[in-house]
Structures are given as structure tokens and as C-alpha cells.
Amino acid sequence: MSVDTNTVRRVAKLARIAVTEDEVASMQGELNAILGFVEQLGEVDVSGVEPMTSVIPMEMRKREDVVTDGGKAEDIVANAPATEDHFFMVPKVVE
Predict the structure, then answer these.
(1) What is the pLDDT along the chain (95 residues), one digit of tens a residue?
(2) Is there a domain that residue 92 lies in?
(3) Number of other residues whose CB lies within 10 A of the CB of residue 8
(4) Burial, 17: exposed, middle or buried (Cβ in 10 Å; 0-12, 13-18, 19+)?
(5) 38: domain CATH number?
(6) Which of 4, 12, 48, 92 could potentially form a cystine with 17 if both were Cys, beta carbons 3.0 to 4.6 Å apart?
(7) Is 8 within 8 Å of 19 (Cβ atoms)?
(8) Which domain range does residue 19 map to?
């Protein structure tokens, strides 16, 4: 895939990068080099390679999924201007 000057200007606009006309040609070369490298990565055979989160095999730290704090519904809504059945009451926004 090759990037033309119009694409460079569009990418610069989307990225909110000020690019002068003199910089468009050099940026075009840089983007084409980056896309060429990405295309090379597509040629690498990764069949049989397991996805990994780290280069060192490690187990993710986990904790028990238990409720450690709760039963404070009255305390939570105590300072609300309007509540009903432990829920916050808010004004209707959409008619």
C-alpha cells in the first residue's frame, strides 16, 4: 500500500498535526516506510505460537471475588436530595 500526498494531508488533519507543504513529501516517505514494515510483519509465520501477555511466563495475580463491604444503602443515599427504595431520584431529562 502506498500513501499519496492527499492521504498525508488527511492523516495530519485527523491527528491535528500542522504539516507544511515542504513536510508533506518527507512525511509521505515516512508513512510508506512504516506501512512497508507492517506488511513485512504480515509475512511472519506465527502458526503454533501462543498469544502471550509477557515474555516471561507468569501467572496473573488473582483474588477471590467476594463482597467485602456492603449493606450500606441507607448511608450511601443519606445526603441525596431525593431517594426512593435506596435509589437516587433525578429529574426527568427526556420527555
Answers:
(1) 689 999 999 999 999 999 999 999 999 999 999 999 999 998 999 898 888 878 888 888 898 888 888 788 889 999 999 999 989 999 888 87
(2) no
(3) 21
(4) exposed
(5) 1.10.20.60
(6) 12
(7) yes
(8) 5-42
